[in-house]
Amino acid sequence: MKRHKPSQWSSWGLWERWIVATSIAEVIGLAIVAVVSLIVSQFGYIQGTFTLVGILEGIVLGFAQWLVLRRYIQHSRRWIIATVIGALFAWFSGLTVSALMAIAYAGVSDVTKTQAFIKGLFLLGAGLGAMLGFCQWLVIKNQIRFSIWWIVANAIAWAVGLFVAYIGVGMAQESFSLQTALVTAVTGTAMGAVIGGITGTALVCLLKSSQKQIH
Protein backbone atom coordinates (compact mmCIF):
# COMPACT_ATOMS: atom_id res chain seq x y z
CA MET A 1 0.00 0.00 0.00
CA LYS A 2 1.01 3.62 -0.39
CA ARG A 3 0.86 6.26 2.27
CA HIS A 4 -1.80 8.90 1.75
CA LYS A 5 -0.23 12.02 0.29
CA PRO A 6 -1.12 15.51 1.52
CA SER A 7 -3.24 16.08 -1.59
CA GLN A 8 -5.34 13.02 -0.79
CA TRP A 9 -6.44 13.92 2.70
CA SER A 10 -7.50 16.97 4.58
CA SER A 11 -4.89 18.20 7.03
CA TRP A 12 -7.60 19.96 8.99
CA GLY A 13 -9.73 16.81 9.10
CA LEU A 14 -6.80 14.69 10.28
CA TRP A 15 -5.96 17.21 12.98
CA GLU A 16 -9.58 17.29 14.18
CA ARG A 17 -9.88 13.50 14.28
CA TRP A 18 -6.63 13.24 16.19
CA ILE A 19 -7.84 15.72 18.81
CA VAL A 20 -11.19 13.94 19.18
CA ALA A 21 -9.51 10.55 19.51
CA THR A 22 -7.01 11.80 22.08
CA SER A 23 -9.69 13.65 24.06
CA ILE A 24 -11.93 10.59 24.26
CA ALA A 25 -8.96 8.48 25.32
CA GLU A 26 -8.01 10.93 28.07
CA VAL A 27 -11.57 11.09 29.41
CA ILE A 28 -11.64 7.30 29.63
CA GLY A 29 -8.13 7.26 31.08
CA LEU A 30 -8.98 9.74 33.84
CA ALA A 31 -12.17 7.80 34.55
CA ILE A 32 -10.10 4.65 35.02
CA VAL A 33 -7.77 6.46 37.41
CA ALA A 34 -10.73 7.91 39.33
CA VAL A 35 -12.41 4.52 39.71
CA VAL A 36 -9.19 2.82 40.76
CA SER A 37 -8.44 5.60 43.26
CA LEU A 38 -11.91 5.18 44.76
CA ILE A 39 -11.44 1.42 45.05
CA VAL A 40 -8.02 1.83 46.67
CA SER A 41 -9.38 4.37 49.16
CA GLN A 42 -12.15 1.97 50.13
CA PHE A 43 -10.38 -1.38 50.12
CA GLY A 44 -6.68 -0.51 50.23
CA TYR A 45 -3.95 -1.05 47.66
CA ILE A 46 -4.08 -4.30 45.72
CA GLN A 47 -0.84 -5.58 44.22
CA GLY A 48 -0.68 -4.98 40.49
CA THR A 49 -3.21 -2.13 40.55
CA PHE A 50 -0.89 0.50 39.10
CA THR A 51 0.36 -1.91 36.45
CA LEU A 52 -3.22 -2.58 35.39
CA VAL A 53 -3.99 1.14 35.25
CA GLY A 54 -0.93 1.80 33.07
CA ILE A 55 -1.85 -1.02 30.70
CA LEU A 56 -5.48 0.09 30.40
CA GLU A 57 -4.54 3.72 29.80
CA GLY A 58 -1.99 2.68 27.19
CA ILE A 59 -4.49 0.45 25.40
CA VAL A 60 -7.17 3.14 25.35
CA LEU A 61 -4.85 5.89 24.09
CA GLY A 62 -3.01 3.65 21.66
CA PHE A 63 -6.21 2.22 20.18
CA ALA A 64 -7.87 5.62 19.84
CA GLN A 65 -4.85 7.09 18.05
CA TRP A 66 -4.42 3.96 15.95
CA LEU A 67 -7.94 4.39 14.54
CA VAL A 68 -6.77 7.70 13.06
CA LEU A 69 -3.17 6.82 12.24
CA ARG A 70 -3.65 3.41 10.62
CA ARG A 71 -4.24 4.94 7.16
CA TYR A 72 -0.92 6.75 7.19
CA ILE A 73 1.73 4.34 8.49
CA GLN A 74 2.79 0.76 7.95
CA HIS A 75 2.56 -1.86 10.71
CA SER A 76 0.17 0.47 12.50
CA ARG A 77 -0.85 -2.10 15.13
CA ARG A 78 2.60 -1.71 16.65
CA TRP A 79 1.47 1.78 17.66
CA ILE A 80 -0.86 0.29 20.28
CA ILE A 81 1.87 -1.93 21.73
CA ALA A 82 4.35 0.96 21.79
CA THR A 83 1.82 3.19 23.54
CA VAL A 84 1.12 0.56 26.20
CA ILE A 85 4.84 0.15 26.89
CA GLY A 86 5.35 3.91 26.97
CA ALA A 87 2.36 4.39 29.28
CA LEU A 88 3.69 1.77 31.70
CA PHE A 89 7.14 3.37 31.83
CA ALA A 90 5.60 6.82 32.19
CA TRP A 91 3.19 5.70 34.91
CA PHE A 92 5.80 4.12 37.15
CA SER A 93 8.34 6.86 36.50
CA GLY A 94 5.70 9.44 37.37
CA LEU A 95 4.87 7.72 40.64
CA THR A 96 8.54 7.52 41.59
CA VAL A 97 9.28 11.15 40.75
CA SER A 98 6.11 12.34 42.52
CA ALA A 99 7.13 10.51 45.68
CA LEU A 100 10.64 11.99 45.53
CA MET A 101 9.21 15.48 45.02
CA ALA A 102 6.95 15.07 48.04
CA ILE A 103 9.93 14.07 50.18
CA ALA A 104 12.21 16.81 48.84
CA TYR A 105 9.75 19.64 49.54
CA ALA A 106 8.33 18.33 52.79
CA GLY A 107 10.00 21.00 54.93
CA VAL A 108 9.73 24.12 52.76
CA SER A 109 7.14 26.91 52.92
CA ASP A 110 3.80 26.60 51.14
CA VAL A 111 4.61 29.34 48.60
CA THR A 112 7.99 27.87 47.74
CA LYS A 113 6.49 24.41 47.66
CA THR A 114 3.76 25.51 45.24
CA GLN A 115 6.21 27.23 42.90
CA ALA A 116 8.57 24.28 42.97
CA PHE A 117 5.68 21.86 42.48
CA ILE A 118 4.40 23.65 39.38
CA LYS A 119 7.88 23.73 37.85
CA GLY A 120 8.33 20.10 38.75
CA LEU A 121 4.95 19.27 37.24
CA PHE A 122 5.92 20.76 33.89
CA LEU A 123 9.26 18.94 33.94
CA LEU A 124 7.55 15.71 34.93
CA GLY A 125 5.03 16.06 32.12
CA ALA A 126 7.81 16.77 29.64
CA GLY A 127 9.71 13.71 30.79
CA LEU A 128 6.68 11.44 30.65
CA GLY A 129 5.71 12.79 27.25
CA ALA A 130 9.20 12.28 25.89
CA MET A 131 9.15 8.72 27.20
CA LEU A 132 5.82 7.96 25.54
CA GLY A 133 6.85 9.79 22.39
CA PHE A 134 10.08 7.81 22.19
CA CYS A 135 8.24 4.48 22.29
CA GLN A 136 5.86 5.65 19.56
CA TRP A 137 8.73 7.10 17.56
CA LEU A 138 10.24 3.63 17.29
CA VAL A 139 7.23 2.69 15.15
CA ILE A 140 7.47 5.62 12.73
CA LYS A 141 11.20 6.42 12.66
CA ASN A 142 11.83 4.58 9.37
CA GLN A 143 8.60 5.72 7.75
CA ILE A 144 8.36 9.46 8.35
CA ARG A 145 11.03 12.07 7.75
CA PHE A 146 12.16 14.19 10.68
CA SER A 147 10.14 11.91 12.96
CA ILE A 148 12.45 12.69 15.90
CA TRP A 149 10.33 15.82 16.37
CA TRP A 150 7.53 13.54 17.49
CA ILE A 151 9.34 13.07 20.80
CA VAL A 152 9.73 16.82 21.23
CA ALA A 153 6.06 17.44 20.42
CA ASN A 154 4.96 14.88 23.00
CA ALA A 155 7.23 16.37 25.64
CA ILE A 156 5.67 19.80 25.14
CA ALA A 157 2.13 18.44 24.87
CA TRP A 158 2.26 16.37 28.03
CA ALA A 159 3.98 19.12 30.01
CA VAL A 160 1.00 21.39 29.35
CA GLY A 161 -1.52 18.56 29.49
CA LEU A 162 -0.40 17.36 32.91
CA PHE A 163 -0.76 20.89 34.26
CA VAL A 164 -4.32 21.02 32.90
CA ALA A 165 -5.05 17.69 34.56
CA TYR A 166 -3.64 18.94 37.86
CA ILE A 167 -5.94 21.97 37.83
CA GLY A 168 -8.98 19.88 36.95
CA VAL A 169 -8.34 17.11 39.46
CA GLY A 170 -7.88 19.74 42.17
CA MET A 171 -11.49 20.81 41.69
CA ALA A 172 -12.91 17.30 42.06
CA GLN A 173 -14.30 15.91 45.29
CA GLU A 174 -12.63 12.94 46.95
CA SER A 175 -15.83 10.89 47.05
CA PHE A 176 -17.68 9.89 43.91
CA SER A 177 -20.42 12.32 42.90
CA LEU A 178 -21.98 13.89 39.84
CA GLN A 179 -19.61 16.83 40.24
CA THR A 180 -16.62 14.49 40.26
CA ALA A 181 -17.86 12.78 37.10
CA LEU A 182 -18.41 16.10 35.34
CA VAL A 183 -15.03 17.48 36.42
CA THR A 184 -13.34 14.29 35.24
CA ALA A 185 -15.07 14.52 31.85
CA VAL A 186 -14.24 18.21 31.38
CA THR A 187 -10.66 17.75 32.57
CA GLY A 188 -10.10 14.76 30.32
CA THR A 189 -11.54 16.60 27.35
CA ALA A 190 -9.40 19.69 27.99
CA MET A 191 -6.28 17.62 28.59
CA GLY A 192 -6.90 15.56 25.47
CA ALA A 193 -7.58 18.66 23.39
CA VAL A 194 -4.29 20.23 24.48
CA ILE A 195 -2.24 17.09 23.95
CA GLY A 196 -4.07 16.19 20.75
CA GLY A 197 -3.79 19.72 19.40
CA ILE A 198 -0.04 19.91 19.88
CA THR A 199 0.80 16.37 18.79
CA GLY A 200 -1.78 16.56 16.00
CA THR A 201 -0.07 19.65 14.59
CA ALA A 202 3.25 17.81 14.70
CA LEU A 203 1.70 14.76 13.04
CA VAL A 204 0.26 16.76 10.16
CA CYS A 205 3.56 18.60 9.62
CA LEU A 206 5.57 15.38 9.72
CA LEU A 207 3.28 13.58 7.28
CA LYS A 208 3.37 16.53 4.92
CA SER A 209 7.15 16.74 5.01
CA SER A 210 7.60 13.05 4.41
CA GLN A 211 7.87 12.08 0.75
CA LYS A 212 8.69 8.42 1.31
CA GLN A 213 6.03 5.96 0.18
CA ILE A 214 5.19 2.73 1.94
CA HIS A 215 5.12 -0.33 -0.28
Instruction: Report the β-strand fraction as a percent range.
Output: under 5%
Total strand segments: 0
Q: Pick out the low-confidence regions.
A: none
Question: What sequence of helices (H) and strands (E) makes up the elements?
Answer: HHHHHH
Instruction: Summarize the main sheet.
Output: none
Give the radius of gyration. 18 Å
Total of DSSP H or I helical runs spanning 4+ residues: 6
Which structural class should the secondary elements be placed in? mainly alpha
What level of helicity do the residues show? over 70%
Overall mean pLDDT stands at 83
The gross shape turns out to be globular
What is the CA–CA distance across the termini? 5 Å
Whole-number tally of structural domains: 1
- Oligomeric state of the chains in view: single chain
Structure report:
By secondary structure, this protein is an all-alpha fold. It contains six helices and no strands. It has helices at 11-43, 49-69, 78-104, 110-140, 149-170, 178-209. The mean pLDDT is 83.
What's the short story on this structure?
The chain is mainly α. Helices cover 77% and strands 0% of the residues.
Any descriptors?
215 residues; 6 helices; 77% helix; mainly alpha; globular
Question: Could you outline the blueprint of secondary structure elements for this entry?
Answer:
Elements: H1 11-43, H2 49-69, H3 78-104, H4 110-140, H5 149-170, H6 178-209
